[in-house]
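Residues pack. Consider this:
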Amino acid sequence: MTDLEKLKTWLATYPGWEEDKPFFVDDTTPKPGCVGLFPQGLEQLSLRRDITGGQKAACRYRFRLYRAAALEENQEENARWLLDFQNWVEAQSAGGLAPRFGDVPQEERLRAEGGSLQKTGKLGSGLYALTLTAEFTRIY
């Protein structure tokens, strides 16, 4: 399973996930209920070589997650979804239930950061966004 597939499968386990709504990668539409996941690539933070010639790389993934939602009379519900989702990500990471991308599971961490309303649409929809940041170690 690819790292992207791992993340998508795990996201669908969030209790507030709307399974009947469209889920896009690298795209989202302004229709309320649509979710878009935008991978921002792999970043190597450091690379260390040990005495046997092996290498240990500290890495980071960042993903932007967008959720289009109806705004009319739902602002508080939308804000609650965002905060609940961020708290769920933190709890999943702390409990070792978040997806693993590296070779040293006990050092991995996944965070949900910067959640906010990004923009509003003409049809009464709002686009909420947050960044999922995964930090992990790979051994080569």
The longest helix spans residues 75-94. Residues 79 and 106 are 32 Å apart (CA to CA). The beta strands are 23-25, 35-49, 55-70, 109-120, 125-139.
